[in-house]
Amino acid sequence: MKLLVTGGAGYIGSVVAAQLLEAGHEVVVLDDCSTGHADAVPAGAPLVRATLREAAGDVLSEGFDGVLHFAAKSLVGESVEKPGLYWDKNLGESLALLDAMRAHHTPRIVFSSTAATYGEPERTPILETDPTRPTNPYGASKLAIDTTLAEYARLYGIGGVSLRYFNVAGAYGAYGERHTVETHLIPNVLAVPLGRRESVSIFGTDYPTADGTCVRDYIHVVDLAVAHLLALDACAPGEHEIFNLGSGSGYSVREVIDVCREVTGEPIPAAESPRRPGDPAVLIASSAKITDRLGWKPERDLRAMVADAWEFIRS
Ligand code: UFG
Questions:
Q1: What is the pTM of this model?
Q2: What is the ipTM of this complex?
């Protein structure tokens, strides 16, 4: 297929673009490189360096079989400070993309949604049918895009799949996580043995969990990429489907730090710190729907995620 990858200069977008190329697809990347890196775009995928509003129409007018849509603002804290930015960049730019798809008859889209659409869950593991009550503008803007995709599918016949990621980690060779502002746990922990930080902060040790720290469902970015390829084939005209992507099991912050200590062989000092506002105690996905419908299953465990991230971060 001829595919447009928006946000293909970012962490997840670049890994998926590389895997699409390896699977034999033709890939064009559209990214304004505001948070991504031009040198992260895989060789073989031309980069159009522009926003979706500026260029989605022109690019799609060449004729594409589908879009994988990763381009977004994705910092929860920033979204609370600047909600307008998140509505504009996430929902507004996505509308421009969808209207360009309509205008140029692009038949399918796989969208990078998030567990943040659910907010604080009433129960775990979270099912796709559970209530969506986002607790920040980031999650709210992604939920609004999921809703818009359902409408565009119903009204205009586009085939859409929203993949709701839980905590993505790991790397794929030369493609990995390189955020200028790094908030994620695993890269922050690995920054310690690299000498970039003195210790890692544990945000909250009084949660109602076994060891008092937050529990999250980690998924390897390569398993995530595999799900995107399956989702692309599953897009049915006029239909919109939502699938969670996680492993169905969780690790606490302390357990993640311990795995990082094992993989790196370094002591990695940790400092107990107050809770980070807005963090739910436990987030675990049920991925039963995508397993049943598309045959997807995660194959790489937390140790593989940390080992691959460690390899990437040191290179
Ligand atoms: N944490 C620390 N120390 C750090 C960084 C994080 O203790 O230096 C803790 C957090 O408080 C949280 C856990 O580690 O309990 C995981 O935090 P991350 O920032 O790695 O990931 P989040 O669970 O906050 O966020 C992820 C995605 C978001 C998405 C969210 C949905 O990064 O984009 O899942 O649940 F919105």
A1: 0.97
A2: 0.95
